[in-house]
Amino acid sequence: MSPVTLARRCALTILLATSLPSFAGVVVSDPWVRGTVPAQRQTAAYMRISSDREVRLAGASSPVAGSALVHEMRMDGDVMRMRPVDSLRIPAGGTVVLDERGLHLMLQELRRPLQPGERVELELRFVDTAGKAELVRISAPVRPLGAASGGTH
Amino acid sequence: MSGGQQSGALPPPFRRAADLAWSVAAVAVFVAAAGLGLHGAWKSIVAPHYEGRAVGAEPIGGDFTLEDPDGRPVALSRFRGKVVLLAFGYTRCPDVCPTTLARFAQARALLGADATQVQVLFVTVDPERDTGELMRQYVPAFDPSFIGLRGSTSATERVATQYGVSYKIVELQGQVLVDHSAIDYLIDRTGRTRVLLPYALSAQQVARDLRTVLDD
To answer: What CATH homologous superfamily does B3-215 map to?
Structure first.
């Protein structure tokens, strides 16, 4: 690998890791992950996703989980229903909120318990209508098992 | 004898004062009695106000026996004398169940010293995946006094039916998705279900209903 290529890769990595929230495109803010007890094998991640152009969330992953999928929780009268969301669409100039009242990113097959105070790395892959992919890496704080979005429990 | 009567009788002004005192006392007793009677009548006519939904004449629920995380049988009737908050759910539930249990912990804390009069029970509708070990760790994580209960599939179905809880375990694309009614039950000291608590209630509202049932 030439020094120039290496420098470019380093620059790209730094850009992806540090600058994306302020970079035009997809912005992920206020992420957090629900903490777990040791015997739990799944938990949920919450966040706000904004985009200046229409994109869809094509995939998500985390080093702490075997898989990460978007689910929708819906209250149907008094019945709570849960369904996977195959393609989460973020409209141009819009924001989609993942919170405990609706959508969440389900982290499954957890490799270890998640303690409040630690951080979980998440990688989200978005694709725009032209098929161009954008990778967003975020570091989400772990909150207590009984936490709520926006709350300070 | 007549001398005794003379000495025992009060002069007219004092007699009138004594009569007046007796009259005042009689009126006071009457008013108090009427007040008590009215209060009782009022209580029996006007149902107490609940933040949740009051259970009408048709009873809901009743006694049941499930197992604690160590496999020991636990009957609802064991908690007679306490007010019980009963919730159904599953530990993989990302939103509703942790929010409900966290809210119950807050509501209980809002009662101060009376918190010891309240017992929270969490029954899993997915006993196959919610092992005793998982229930032992998960439920007390919200409040050490909370008790997690599980049973066989048929015992779980029986208790759910008794309380009108609907649930369905859906396996879709290798994922286990559970649909269930997000209604909780406020049970009085005698074991009677008094209030249905929908998911939308705040900890303050739950605490108010707990207070109403505790003071009943």
So the answer is: Glutaredoxin (3.40.30.10)
